[in-house]
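Translate sequence into structure tokens.
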Amino acid sequence: MANISVYNMEGNEVGTIELNDAVFGVKVNEHLVHQAVVRHLANKRQGTQKAKTRAEVRGGGRKPWRQKGTGHARQGSIRAPQWTGGGVVFAPVPRDYSKKMNKKERRAALRSALTSRVEAEKLIVLDELRLEEIKTKEMQRILNNLKVEKAVIVLPEKDEKVVLSARNIPNVATISSDMLSVYDVMKYSTVIMTKAAVASIEEVYA
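Result follows.
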């Protein structure tokens, strides 16, 4: 099992923690990680885009001029695609973009993503993360102590003071351990977890 340092909010090392190899020490499967990220982004799409075809636009029932003898090209409707106000060729219609992925694959992908962060030394474990009040400046100070600019903060459960304090800091997000996704792990260069969050994740994914 891998041992990594544990820090306090001042950025000082206060001990070590032993990570479970079943979660943080697996063989990285890049294909599953990629598949999980693609699925996440696809599932976020609303799929509500819509445009009208020539069959759906209003008007255009009468032939604009006779077939021959006018000098114009023949036309059958003023709602044909080449006309202003006409229908759209192969118009987009509402559709479901969501992709499916087996539960075992999703879990394996998250383990791979977490392992990749451990291998890159981009996983920071805090002994605890508690704020007395909602204060963005205090959260920024903690991140500066840890020398981190772009990070996802993983908490064992939602902490409103931490969430609201980090909300206005660019490139920083907070998430509870039960909602952590592969996309969150891969999007941010550093993953910050409390010891309680590590224990929570190991309990579910080990």
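Note: The chain has seven helices and six strands.
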